[in-house]
């Protein structure tokens, strides 16, 4: 039964209700980020709140995560009594609204009422619950001194936000909360436009859930959301796509975002594990550039372009599968993008025109060039996808003699024809030697089934370069090291392509060493969490020991064949980058020099 509000509470001011907290007062207390606290017991929940409190004084107690929420009230009361600096929301969302509480509406109401009496300054009531209550029942919550959030969750889509707002408004809550799900990037635009429309009508909180909703979680405040939600830690998310509070503050600098903040992002699919946001946000922060960098997961270019236009975005790092397709939407590209038919960097001019650059090619060439004169060098490229394309064209432009090995001979031949390179058969590889061997396939990448692309006896080269950057130490890199060969890991390339993007976007020199440091640190942490398969396993699948035919671009996704430099010494690669490897002359005919590595000792 739908309640018809009878109390003419002026939105935003509660002073007419005895004991209630005024909205103005609340708004002055609460921060921009509310950290959701969960626990499986009351003690654990309070423990987590006490920990979160060190960095956040605005907490949401998700009482519905507890098997018996009522049992938590005494502890909650004590906690809030002892910590007057905390502003607390009590939430006991029923399963029907996407929460975990299996009890009745009456039971939910009792819990919220007691939470308010225990000192929670806000209570969250779902619209679906409110619509079953009479206004006096709702007022009981307020009479305990709490402000009311009426919230609505849509776990499927982002639609009819105004209609939902109109359903909530009659209850005259102090806060209106609408949490939808982004199925496209432009759903975030819908949410932000809604926030802009309603920000002067009510205290609105608007968020899009889901992997594609990150834009709203970071930029929603700027559009008018009173605050946003964050997880206490990774793994403790209370909503899909929720970001950890520290990441929101330190990586996305949510407290500093303002109307002047320029927005950039990395677009493609998959994008979840991309290290570009970490790297570029750090660079912006370090160089005091008022900009933020987001992960934009999409396969639909039209969706992405809507976002670029509407937010607007100032630039994009473009990755798989959009690198080629984006070209036709660009006003102009640099010569190399045009030549290879792929662009990884987009800039939006003030008049809205889009320009494209390719920083992958230079990022792939530079680490090699610093160690090896490329003119006349004999180079084996493994793969024939996007990454290989950048490598082959880049190397050819430098005058190298390029051989392509790929599981699908046809793809290898096509690329070879286009780039005026050669193909090579697998059975010839062990008999040949090269100045450099470059892996441009996803083999060895985190998440890709382990398989050695070459056997040790096939690695006859002066230097081995793996474009895969996650993990830093790929099987190929380890194999090369075991043979005493100098290596170039994909991290170097990854950082370089990102550094050039930073420079294109900002006009400032990139803080390359710090970028490298943050990436290596993140990769090491990941490696510690997921140790590599033992080497024996890698060799279990000789049939798969061939270059992978899938297109693989030298993008910035850790699950793509990208960059990796390694360092076991504890020093970052930036600290002792290239010096470890002496420049080597190309062999005149790719002859024995490569097959006889100087020493058997490990290179690092
Ligand atoms: O309503 C919200 C937003 C939320 O669902 C999110 O996705 O961040 C998390 C919930 O804890 C909170 O009550």
Automatic annotation (TrEMBL):
Residues 266-345 form the Shikimate dehydrogenase substrate binding N-terminal domain. It holds the Pfam family Shikimate_dh_N. Residues 490-519 form the SDH C-terminal domain. 3-dehydroquinate binds at residues 60-62, 93, 217, 238, 242. GO terms for molecular function: 3-dehydroquinate dehydratase activity; NADP binding; shikimate 3-dehydrogenase (NADP+) activity. Residues 525-604 are annotated as: Disordered. Residues 374-452 form the Quinate/shikimate 5-dehydrogenase/glutamyl-tRNA reductase domain. Shikimate binds at residues 274-276, 319, 344, 360, 469, 497. NADP(+) binds at residues 383-387, 467, 490. Homodimer. This is Multifunctional fusion protein. It comes from Paracidobacterium acidisoli.
């Amino acid at each position: 039964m739908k309640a018809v509000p009878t109390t003419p509470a002026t939105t935003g001011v509660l002073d007419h209700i005895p004991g209630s907290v005024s909205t103005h007062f609340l708004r002055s207390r609460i921060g921009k980020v509310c950290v959701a606290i969960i626990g499986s017991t009351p003690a654990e929940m309070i423990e987590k709140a006490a920990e979160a409190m060190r960095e956040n004084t605005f907490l949401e107690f998700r009482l519905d995560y507890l098997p018996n929420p009522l049992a938590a009230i005494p502890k909650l009361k004590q906690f809030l009594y002892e910590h007057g600096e905390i502003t607390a929301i009590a939430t006991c969302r029923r399963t029907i609204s996407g929460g975990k509480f299996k009890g009745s509406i009456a039971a939910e109401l009792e819990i919220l009422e007691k939470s308010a009496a225990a000192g929670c300054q806000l209570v969250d009531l779902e619209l679906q619950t409110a619509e079953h209550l009479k206004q006096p029942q709702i007022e009981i919550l307020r009479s305990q001194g709490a402000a009311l959030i009426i919230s609505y969750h849509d776990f499927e889509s982002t639609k009819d936000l105004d209609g939902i707002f109109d359903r909530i408004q009659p209850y005259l809550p102090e806060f209106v909360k609408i949490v939808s799900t982004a199925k496209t990037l432009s759903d975030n635009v819908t949410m932000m436009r809604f926030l802009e429309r309603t920000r002067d009508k009510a205290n609105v909180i608007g968020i899009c859930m889901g992997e594609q909703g990150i834009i709203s979680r970071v930029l929603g405040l700027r559009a008018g959301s009173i605050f946003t939600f964050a997880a206490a830690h990774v793994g403790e998310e209370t909503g899909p796509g929720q970001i950890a509070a520290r990441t929101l503050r330190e990586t996305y600098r949510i407290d500093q975002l303002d109307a002047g903040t320029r927005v950039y992002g990395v677009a493609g699919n998959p994008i979840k594990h991309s290290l570009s946001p970490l790297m570029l946000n750090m660079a912006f922060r370090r160089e005091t550039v008022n900009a933020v960098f987001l992960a934009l997961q999409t396969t639909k270019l039209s969706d992405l372009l809507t976002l670029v236009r509407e937010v607007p975005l100032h630039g994009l790092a473009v990755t798989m599968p959009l690198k080629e397709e984006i070209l036709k939407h660009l006003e102009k590209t640099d010569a190399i993008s045009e030549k290879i038919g792929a662009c990884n960097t987009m800039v939006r001019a003030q008049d809205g025109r889009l320009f494209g650059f390719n920083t992958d090619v230079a990022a792939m060439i530079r680490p090699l060039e610093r160690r090896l004169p490329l003119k006349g060098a004999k180079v084996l490229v493994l793969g024939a996808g996007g990454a290989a394309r950048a490598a082959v064209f880049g190397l050819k432009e430098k005058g190298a003699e390029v051989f392509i090995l790929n599981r699908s001979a046809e793809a290898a031949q096509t690329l070879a024809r286009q780039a005026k390179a050669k193909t090579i058969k697998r059975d010839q590889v062990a008999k040949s030697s090269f100045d450099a061997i470059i892996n441009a396939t996803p083999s060895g990448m985190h998440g890709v089934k382990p398989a050695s692309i070459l056997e040790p006896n096939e690695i006859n080269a002066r230097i081995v370069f793996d474009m895969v950057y996650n993990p830093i130490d790929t099987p190929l890199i380890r194999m090369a090291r075991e043979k005493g060969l100098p290596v170039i890991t994909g991290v170097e390339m990854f950082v370089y392509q990102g550094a050039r993007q930073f420079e294109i976007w900002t006009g400032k020199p990139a803080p390359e060493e710090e970028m490298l440091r943050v990436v290596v640190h993140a990769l090491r942490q990941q490696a510690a969490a997921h140790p590599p398969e033992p080497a024996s396993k890698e060799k279990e699948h000789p049939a798969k020991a061939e270059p992978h035919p899938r297109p693989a671009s030298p993008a910035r996704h850790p699950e793509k064949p990208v960059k990796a430099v390694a360092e076991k010494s504890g020093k970052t690669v930036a600290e002792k980058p290239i010096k470890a490897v002496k420049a080597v002359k190309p062999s005149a005919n790719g002859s024995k020099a490569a097959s006889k590595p100087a020493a058997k000792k490990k290179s690092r």
